[in-house]
Write a structure and sequence with these properties.
Residues 1-23 are annotated as: Disordered. It holds the Pfam family Ribosomal_L32p. The structure is a single chain. It contains 1 helix and 4 strands; from the N terminus they run αββββ. The chain is rod-shaped, with a radius of gyration of 23 Å. The chain is an alpha+beta fold. 3% of the residues are buried. The strands form 2 sheets. The chain has a two-stranded antiparallel sheet. Strands 3-4 form a two-stranded antiparallel sheet. The N and C termini lie far apart (65 Å). The chain has a domain at 24-60.
Length: 60
């Protein structure tokens, strides 16, 4: 079984892990009601997605 001869330095480990950080979710705005909505999701307030109403939302 292959075993490393020397320990990887902290900077080398950090370089490898530089792309592992979480990225912010991109947020768009609903053209119907102007509320903030995650991209590629149905608007939770009005049920609007890609130019049409997908889910009928009850006014309570």
């Amino acid at each position: 079984m292959a075993v490393p001869k020397r320990k990887h330095s902290n900077s080398r480990t950090g370089k490898r892990r530089s792309h592992d950080a979480l990225k912010k979710r991109s947020v768009g705005y609903c053209p119907q009601c102007s509320s903030a909505v995650p991209t590629h999701h149905i608007c939770p307030k009005c049920g609007y997605y890609q130019g049409r109403t997908v889910v009928q939302h009850e006014e309570s």
